[in-house]
Write a structure and sequence with these properties.
The chain is of the alpha/beta class. It has one domain: Response regulator (Rossmann fold, 3-Layer(aba) Sandwich). The protein contains six helices and six strands; from the N terminus they run H-E-H-E-H-E-H-E-H-E-H-E. It has a six-stranded parallel beta sheet with strand order 2-1-3-4-5-6, with helices on both faces. Helix 3 runs parallel beside helix 4.
Length: 155
C-alpha cells in the first residue's frame, strides 16, 4: 500500500540511489533544459535522453529503458497520460513522474490509474522534485502537496 510522503519526513529529503537513468519529456525546450540541468547537478541521477512529444517518449522509453521518466501531460502527438499508459505496459520497470501544470483531480486520478507513480506541479518543482523522485524510487506514490488529494485515494 502506498502512503503519502510526509514533507517533514527526513526520508523525503534523501537522495535517490546511485545510477538512476532518467528520461526527460516536455515539449517546452527551455523547461526541459532547466530540468536537465537541475538533475545534472546530482551525481546519482544520469539523464540518458530527452523527448519533446508523447510518441517520441514511448519510443525512447523502449530504446533506453530508463529507471525513471519525468513527463509532461500536455504533449503533441499523444498526451502524457497515454504515453504513461503505453510505457507502463511495455516497460514495466520504468517509474514515471508527471511534471505538469494540470491541477484537476480527475486528471490526477487518470494519470495515477494509468501508471504514473508521481505527480508534481511545475510550480512546485524546486521544492518537490527531489522528494518525489526519492519517494517513487522507494516504490511509493507522490502527489504534490499543492493538490488537495492523497495518493492512496487512487489505489
Amino acid at each position: 500500500m502506498s502512503r503519502r510522503t510526509l514533507h517533514s519526513d527526513e526520508d523525503a529529503e534523501r537522495r535517490p540511489s546511485p545510477s538512476v537513468r532518467v528520461l526527460v519529456v516536455d515539449d517546452d525546450e527551455p523547461w526541459r533544459r532547466w530540468v536537465y540541468s537541475e538533475l545534472g547537478k546530482l551525481q546519482q541521477l544520469r539523464v540518458v535522453g530527452e523527448a519533446s512529444d508523447g510518441l517520441e517518449a514511448v519510443r525512447k522509453a523502449h530504446e533506453l529503458k530508463p529507471d525513471l521518466i519525468l513527463l509532461d501531460i500536455n504533449l503533441p502527438n499523444i498526451n502524457g497520460i497515454e504515453a504513461t499508459r503505453r510505457i507502463s505496459h511495455s516497460v514495466p520497470n520504468t517509474e514515471i513522474i508527471l511534471l505538469t501544470n494540470e491541477e484537476r483531480p480527475d486528471v490526477v486520478r487518470l494519470a495515477l490509474s494509468n501508471g504514473a507513480k508521481g505527480y508534481v506541479l511545475k510550480g512546485a518543482t524546486k521544492t518537490e522534485l527531489l522528494p518525489a523522485i526519492a519517494a517513487v524510487l522507494r516504490r511509493e506514490r507522490f502527489v504534490s502537496r499543492l493538490l488537495p488529494i492523497e495518493p492512496d485515494d487512487y489505489d
